[in-house]
Amino acid sequence: MIEVHDLTIRYDDKAVFRAESALFEEGKISAVIGRNGSGKSTLLKALSGQKMYSGSVKIDGKECAELRPMERARKVAYLPQILKSANMDVRTLAEHGRYPYHGSFRRPTEEDRACVEKALMITGMKALEEKNLGQLSGGERQRAYLALVIAQNSSMILLDEPTSFLDHMYREDFFAILQELKKAGKGIVMVCHDLEQSFAYSDRIFLMEDGVLHSGMTAAGLSGEEDLLRRNFGVVLKPSEDSGSLYPFVMKR
Residues 98, 119: contact at Cβ < 8 Å? Predict the structure, then answer.
């Protein structure tokens, strides 16, 4: 669980991000939406200990800034938007997720190997485990990196626009994996640019507006905030009246 109180992030003494209060829970999928440049990625970096902040970010009751990096990595896994095509195979990449538990020098344990194996199976990458990342498609590479964060076995997983470069079929597969992680008790916090997918798959939606984080709402609750949605996206989202619709909420002018 990650709790945020009176969080402020500054650049050159200017506040660029503020969040009065927010709670990101295990066993829940939380989406962070907002216009480009509104501070969504900055929030994830603060939650994962990569940005200095004032106020409080507590991970399982402990202040994020006071945790040692390896201790923090056992609690929170972070997947950035831009994924490098490192010169290694898929299994080696997934094995990197076990670094917080043994560092660079200790040999992998049975538990490490089991976590890696499970991550490869969950993401459907077992058959491609010997392939170099440079040989993979964009969707396969995304799932390979997701295998890394699953192998890390952290209770909270932070994803920065994880489906940005995926076609529709791969997006649906990716969200199916996230649903399985949720059922296993993992907390997912994802920056998502697709509004209909955010409303379809999230338990709570947090809207970033000009560097200010609005409290998390259900899809139904945020759907009723028409002025807020129009101000930020120029559209509203309403429950679909078509039983054949792909998503339960659809965008309307």
Answer: no
Please, what are the domains in the chain?
2-252 (3.40.50.300)
Cα(108)–Cα(33) distance, integer angstroms:
38
pLDDT given for residue 107 in this prediction: 80
- Spatial separation of the C-alpha atoms in residues 155 and 173, rounded to whole Å: 21
Cα dihedral across residues 202, 150, 104, 92: positive or negative: negative
- Block means of pLDDT (10 residues each) for the chain, 253 residues, are 93 80 96 91 92 94 94 94 84 94 79 95 96 90 93 96 80 90 96 94 95 92 96 95 89 92
Using CA atoms in the order 8, 9, 14, 19, what is the torsion angle rounded to 10 degrees? -40
Which is nearest to 247 in space by CA: 205, 194, 180, 193?
194
Residues 9, 17: contact at Cβ < 8 Å? yes
